[in-house]
Every structure is written in C-alpha cells, then in structure tokens.
C-alpha cells in the first residue's frame, strides 16, 4: 500500500472536460498547460438532457478514469468543465452537488462553445468566434471582454444541427412516408421509429414520444441524411431541401452575428459544420474569414483550465457580460 502511495503523482494538475450531446472528452495537463493525455467517452456530456444525471456521471467517470490511469492526486487538480447545457441552472446545481458527493474539487464552468473559441487562440484579447454545428448548434465569440452568442437555445429550437435536421426530417417522413424515394433512407427512418416506439399500433405517430426523445437520438439520423443529400438524383427531395433550408438559415445567422459583433475571424467545430464547410465559406460575407483545418476544442478546454487556475473569475459563466445577437427564423416543414 505504501509503495502505491509513493508512486502517486502529487504535483498539481489540470483536468478539463469538453462535451456535447454525443461525446464526453477529458484531457489531463500539467500546471503549465502541457498536455499529458486525453480520452473520449462516446456518451453525452450535455447536462441539459433529462435531469442531467447521465451526463454528470459520464463526466465524473471520465475524470476518475484519466486521473487513476496517471496516478495523479485528483484532490489537488484544478478542474474545468466546458459543457453543452451548462446554462441549465437546476442541472448545473445538481452537477456541482454530485462533485461534492464524489469528493471532487469544485470545478470552474463554461460552455463547450467557449472551449472552441479558446482553441482558436488562448489570448482572450483577440476577437474571434466559433461556429458550432454538431449534435446542437451555437455561435459564440469573444471581443472587448464580452461574450457574443447566437443560437444555442436547446432542442428542438435552433437550426442546422444534427439533432434538429434529424428531427425535422423524421417529421417530414411521418407526415408523408411516400415522399421518401430512397429505400435505404426509408429503412433508417423505420428503424428509428421502431427502436423508440414512436408509432402507435394504429399507425399514427406518438407525438408525445417524438417530442420527449433526446436530441442525440435524432442526431444519429444525420449521417444517413448527409449521404442522401450527397447522392440523391431527386432534385425535389424533401430531405435535401430540409438540409438546404437549414444551411441557408445558418449562413444568414453567421452574417448577422458578424455584422452585430464586429467579429470577422471564425472557426468551425462539429461534424455538421465541417460537412458543409465549402458551402458556408462560399456563401458568407466576403469579409468573414474561417480558419482552415479542424479546431481542437478539447485543447481549448485545457486552455480554459490554465486561464482559470490562478484567476477563477476569468470568463466566468455568470459574471462575464454576454450579448445575445439572435436573428434567425425556425424553418417549418
């Protein structure tokens, strides 16, 4: 037992989590911000889902897994959490209580979008923004010690995310199954309906069940929808039109966001945004510049941990001035 204790690394460390509706990612770094290791848990880290307990447990499991792997003293670690759904006050309080029960240090909290912003550049004085479109979608930027944001209202509000495109597409199929000319896509819809009991025995759709289903399940439809979008020969495909409508709305949101905030430098995060990188960059205002290549949002979460290690109020979740620049319409199909 004593030998094991001697092997334990007692140097102060940084632990950070970045996660959304689909994945929970954890990174370990030195007190100077040098990365040591990272892991990904293919489970939700969005604490707005349900009562937040599932995401909270995934986060705690990830922290313990990485700290035990490297034999660090987690009690001495500085923990930063950059999470989807962090604005959900009630579930955020539950998460903090869960940390207390697990005897974990109190974490500093921010949204997963801020992790994306800090991945672009750790210097918070430089104006820039992140355009996230994965399971959910949000725009968030930093300028003049203020946070600017748009979208991120939670499912099923918003536009151009895997979950909302899946939700809208399933709605189109439910209203008119004959509109789906692709047998492969039709089977994907039917498998989803059967797996989650979304249809009554009389053939009608269970509206309550449809509305109650978590966003990440709808996001599972996106790969099949993207494949259909890229390969269909049907110029009148309702599902291709659904994606195009969301894409055009998202471009409008980016243009409005840039005009209102004055931010011109952006980066993408998320599989949906990356899948349509070329279309978006070609359609936005010519003064808007998107960083080439992927952004490492998990590294951004570690940057947030480093930033708050000695200044816990830096980019504080509730104290930092936040300006909402929402100008978008919710498409109806």
Task: Break the fold down into its secondary structure elements and pairings.
Elements: H1 2-7, E1 13-19, E2 24-30, E3 35-41, H2 53-69, E4 78-83, H3 89-101, E5 108-111, H4 112-120, E6 128-133, E7 137-143, E8 146-151, H5 162-175, H6 183-195, H7 207-212, H8 215-219, H9 222-231, H10 238-261, E9 265-269, H11 271-275, H12 277-283, E10 289-290, H13 297-309, E11 322-324
Parallel strand pairs: 1-4, 4-5, 6-9, 8-11, 9-10
Antiparallel strand pairs: 1-2, 2-3, 6-7, 7-8
Helix pairs in contact: 2-3, 4-13, 5-10
Would you write up a description of this structure?
It contains 13 helices and eleven strands. With 333 residues, it is an alpha/beta fold. It has a domain at 2-112 and 296-317: Nucleotidyltransferase, domain 5. Strands 10-9-6-7-8-11 form a six-stranded mixed β-sheet, with helices on both faces. α2 (53-69) packs parallel to α3, α4 crosses α13 (297-309) and α5 (162-175) runs antiparallel to α10. It is globular and about 65 Å long.
Keyword list:
single chain; disordered N terminus; six-stranded mixed β-sheet; alpha/beta; five-stranded mixed β-sheet; 333 residues; 11 strands; Nucleotidyltransferase, domain 5
What does this entry show, briefly?
This protein is of the alpha/beta class.
Strand residue content: 15-25%
The appropriate CATH architecture of the domain at 2-112 and 296-317 is 2-Layer Sandwich
> Would you identify the CATH H-level superfamily of the domain at 2-112 and 296-317?
ATPase, nucleotide binding domain
Helical element count?
13
Q: Tell me about the largest β-sheet.
A: 6 strands, mixed
Task: Give the overall silhouette.
Answer: globular
**What integer is the average pLDDT?**
93
Radius of gyration: 21 Å
Total E-strand runs: 11
Following the backbone from N to C, one meets helices and strands in this order, namely: HEEEHEHEHEEEHHHHHHEHHEHE
Low-confidence stretches: 1-6
Instruction: Report how far apart the termini are.
Output: 64 Å
**Structural class label:** alpha/beta
CATH topology type of the domain at 2-112 and 296-317: Nucleotidyltransferase, domain 5
| Helical residues, percent | 40-55%
């Amino acid at each position: 037992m004593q030998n094991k204790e001697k092997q334990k690394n007692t140097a102060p460390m940084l632990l950070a989590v970045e996660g959304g509706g689909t994945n929970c990612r954890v990174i370990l770094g030195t007190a100077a911000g040098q990365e040591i290791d990272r892991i990904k848990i293919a489970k939700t880290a969005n604490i707005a889902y349900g009562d937040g307990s599932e995401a909270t447990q995934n986060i705690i499991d990830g922290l313990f897994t990485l700290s035990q792997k490297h034999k660090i003293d987690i009690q001495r670690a500085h923990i930063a959490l950059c999470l989807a759904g962090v604005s959900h006050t009630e579930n955020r309080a539950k998460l903090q209580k869960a940390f207390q029960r697990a005897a974990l240090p109190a974490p500093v909290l921010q949204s997963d979008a801020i992790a994306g912003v800090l991945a672009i550049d750790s210097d918070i004085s430089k104006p820039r923004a992140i355009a996230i479109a994965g399971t959910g979608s949000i725009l968030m930027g930093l300028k003049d010690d203020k946070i600017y944001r748009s979208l991120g209202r939670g499912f099923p509000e918003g536009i151009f995310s895997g979950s909302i495109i899946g939700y809208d597409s399933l709605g189109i199929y439910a209203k008119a199954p004959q509109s789906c000319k692709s047998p492969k896509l039709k089977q994907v819809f039917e498998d989803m309906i059967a797996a989650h009991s979304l249809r009554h025995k009389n053939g009608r759709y269970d509206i309550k069940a449809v509305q109650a289903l978590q966003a990440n399940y709808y996001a599972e439809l996106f790969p099949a929808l993207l494949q259909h979008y890229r390969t269909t020969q049907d110029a009148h495909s309702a599902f291709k039109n659904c994606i195009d409508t969301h894409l055009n709305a998202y471009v409008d949101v980016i243009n409005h966001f840039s005009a209102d905030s004055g931010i011109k430098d952006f980066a993408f995060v998320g599989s949906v945004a990356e899948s349509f990188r070329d279309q978006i960059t070609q359609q936005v205002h010519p003064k808007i510049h998107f960083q080439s290549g992927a952004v490492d949002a998990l590294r951004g979460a570690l940057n947030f941990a480093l930033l708050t290690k000695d200044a816990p109020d830096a980019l504080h979740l509730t104290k930092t001035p936040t300006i909402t620049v929402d100008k978008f319409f919710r498409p109806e199909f």
